Amino acid sequence: MHKRTIKDRIHWIGAVDWNRRLFDSLIPLPDGTTYNAYLIEGSEKTALLDTVDPPLAEPWLARIAAEPKIDYIVSHHAEQDHSGAIGQVLERFPQAKVITSPKAKAMLMDLLHLPEAAIVTVTDGETLSLGDKTLQFIHTPWVHWPETMVTYVPEDQILFSCDFFGSHIASSDLYVNDTCRVYEAAKRYFAEIMMPFRGTIEKNIAKLKPYDIRIIAPSHGQIYDRPEWIMEAYAEWVSAQPRNLVVLPYISMHGSTQQMVDHLIDALADRDVRVEAYDLVVTDIGKLAISLVDAGTIVVGTPTVLAGPHPVAAYGTFLANALRPKARFLSIIGSYGWGGKTVETLAGMIPNLKVEVLDPVLCKGQPTVQAFEALDRLADAIAAKHKENGFA
Ligand SMILES: Cc1cc2nc3c(=O)[nH]c(=O)nc-3n(C[C@H](O)[C@H](O)[C@H](O)COP(=O)(O)O)c2cc1C
């Protein structure tokens, strides 16, 4: 898409990837994505903020090459979808300096083999004058790599936040205009990219508080010209208090675990506990991750296969452990044929989850009356724990 003006001499100059359906070879992207680069023309110097993903670099570089000058290339984040075309921009503008954090300098040299001489590092809070516009660099470590930083332009009150507050939506809209749609996309993005670093994200949100931010221009998705709601949403997502919600990822080969899952859903609903259940065979793991942002309890449903959990249930559990949601309770339900170590194996896969494990319910073959009663007791225990802890 063509260059688009945000404010006087501040432009979006990114690329829209309408058809991308998977990110990081992991994350489903139902709506595609954008790679947002920005051009800021001060009265003396011009800065390019980030680049685009290398597969989209070719048509994008033609537009960049048409710019009369680029003095600085600000690299907020060394990940290749933003930094991958810096080398080609330097070929067109060999006198340009790459401005980045000290940690990102090392990473840009490792990941992209950028020449050391082209890179200038900036400290936390340092400013760079473009003449009548100023770039102020704010280090935001672990949002979501160790080297990340953002840029604030005080004259225009814009925060260029890189992946912070981002969302994956391909659109011709420059600004967010469908808040509901962007809320879900931003929550999906948060769940998969930011949730593992909840604690540091919270600190970095606090670090941005003193700045008068009227516009947030992230590196994926549309620009927020009313940034309050996304900042409020982030504050809620990083908060320590989960909701009165059970997330139930499960799998069933012959229907026995499915019957247990169905029973538990009803039992929890009868006790006013919300449930979001995901059959891992068909689920979009992004949806599962979104639910994990709020979950008070996780219940994994799995049959025993080759003496342990079904491999797909193990994958779901491994992913939940890696994403480090704030859930406080966990249990395991499922059916088996003769025996195995399903509970021990799954319980050993969640060292990152700070959860109390509630009594699992395993039953041989199809669930019996006793198994259904045990599931009712599990629902009682979950409802009581949620109430005691004030999960709303
Ligand atoms: C490939 C395969 C391997 C299995 N391995 C075990 C096992 O190691 N231990 C066990 O108790 N049951 C084992 N089973 C039996 C299932 O756990 C049992 O049929 C269970 O009731 C299936 O639950 P579902 O109906 O929810 O799929 C295995 C079943 C299959 C298909």
TrEMBL record:
Pfam families documented for this protein: ODP (PF19583)
Taxonomic superkingdom: Bacteria
CDD domains reported for this sequence: flavodiiron_proteins_MBL-fold
InterPro entries, per the entry: Flavodoxin/NO_synth (IPR008254), Flavoprotein-like_sf (IPR029039), Metallo-B-lactamas (IPR001279), ODP_dom (IPR045761), RibonucZ/Hydroxyglut_hydro (IPR036866), Rubredoxin-O_OxRdtase (IPR016440)
Residue span(s) of domain Flavodoxin-like: 246-383
GO molecular function, one term: oxidoreductase activity
Gene3D superfamilies: 3.40.50.360, Ribonuclease Z/Hydroxyacylglutathione hydrolase-like (3.60.15.10)
Family: In the N-terminal section; belongs to the zinc metallo-hydrolase group 3 family.
Protein name (Swiss-Prot/TrEMBL): FprA family A-type flavoprotein
Taxonomic lineage from the root: Bacteria, Pseudomonadati, Thermodesulfobacteriota, Desulfobacteria, Desulfobacterales
